[in-house]
Amino acid sequence: MARLKLGILISGRGSNMQALIAACREGRVDAEVRLVLSNRVDAGGLAHAKTAGIATCIVSHRDFADRAGFDAALDQALRRAGVDFVCLAGFMRLLTPGFIESWRDRMINIHPSLLPAFPGLDTHRRALEAGVKLAGCTVHFVRFETDSGPIVAQAAVPVLADDDEASLAVRVLAAEHRLYPLALRLIAEGRVQVAGERALAKAPTPPQSALLNPPD
Ligand code: GAR
Predict the structure, then answer these.
(1) Which residue's CA lies nearest to atom 12 of ligand 1?
(2) Which end of the chain has the smaller Cβ count within 10 Å, N or C?
(3) pTM
């Protein structure tokens, strides 16, 4: 399989972006980060990407009258950089169906819940309100509905009795930093097949144990 040429889209601090950059640099994922693109001038992750010597680009949604114009500019920036695979890493803009379709099965996202539970914003607050005992994160191919699409990989973490949104977010984020590089590695190695709305990932060793909360 040809080496992936990645474009990473961010809107904020970019900690998942950092995890992906590190995994590529350290040879854990056979892919090259060609471009980090942000829709926000003040995205903290831009500085890290620049320090890592990666090309960065800002396409501000405020400069466009509509979503289609913004997405056309995103698409142009990605293609100009030679990107052939897109990772959304805390990119908080809704994308148009046209853009999603043109990157179909070549664009993945990470979301801090066990999808299809709790898509969208305020994920951790809603998980706590629902009283779930396991939370987690999901890497999925991008389809039209927010935070939907064939699931590549998930990580589960326990929800603890005294958790608040912040403490749960920290635990889930640590899992995100492990999961996103793993999912990308499986894709880069050609181990993930998308069939309709399901993705099948062939991992080297299947997991054996259940995560129980409360534990037995
Ligand atoms: C991450 O928790 C990511 O899962 C979430 O935004 C955060 C970005 O953090 N994404 C979504 O909620 C997408 N719906 P980061 O900028 O430090 O990677």
Answers:
(1) 111
(2) C
(3) 0.97
